[in-house]
Amino acid sequence: MSHLTLGVHHVGLSVTDVERSKSFYRDILGFEIIGENPGVFAFVSDGTTMITLWQTGTEEASFSTCGLHHLAFRAPDFNSMQDIERRLRDAGVPIQFDALGLHGREGRLIGLFFYDPDGIRLEIAYEAQEGEGNGLPVIGGCGSI
Questions:
Q1: Using CB atoms within 10 A of its CB, is residue 78 exposed (0-12), middle (13-18) or buried (19+)?
Q2: What residue spans in the chain does CATH classification 3.10.180.10 cover?
Q3: What is the pLDDT of residues 53-89, one digit of tens each?
């Protein structure tokens, strides 16, 4: 059986102070800042893993609170994205933004946001190739709740 996903595309974390978190990942872990909107979000990467930091937290995480903004899985191709969307719809899984859509730093990321049975926000992501995803709506993407 071929896989429908190809590992983790990125991990999005809700934080209370994006500048403090950005400094931690950069200065302590050696991540590079690859994109940001100061006071709102920062994208950091170690060259293999990208973490997106979103200043949406109102309190620090503890064992009794959730700290994951969303978890994104990489899809191997656009057809797999459509297959996954069909499977989600067939199973009655809530889909945020109601469909596949374009978002990301350059609007080239095709994403599908949905929720697991416990309400944890998940995404299937695919970086569109030339001509793929034409006609898809632009969706709120990562910054939207």
A1: middle
A2: 1-9+66-139
A3: 898 877 666 545 556 777 788 888 999 889 899 988 9
One-letter identity of residue 11: V
Residue 104 token pair: 């990301």
CATH superfamily of 1-9+66-139: 2,3-Dihydroxybiphenyl 1,2-Dioxygenase, domain 1 (3.10.180.10)
* Residue carrying structure tokens 């899809």: 75
pTM of structure:
0.65
> What is the CA angle 81-50-53, rounded to 5?
105
User: Rounded to whole angstroms, how far apart are CA atoms 87 and 106?
Assistant: 28
- DSSP letter at 104? S
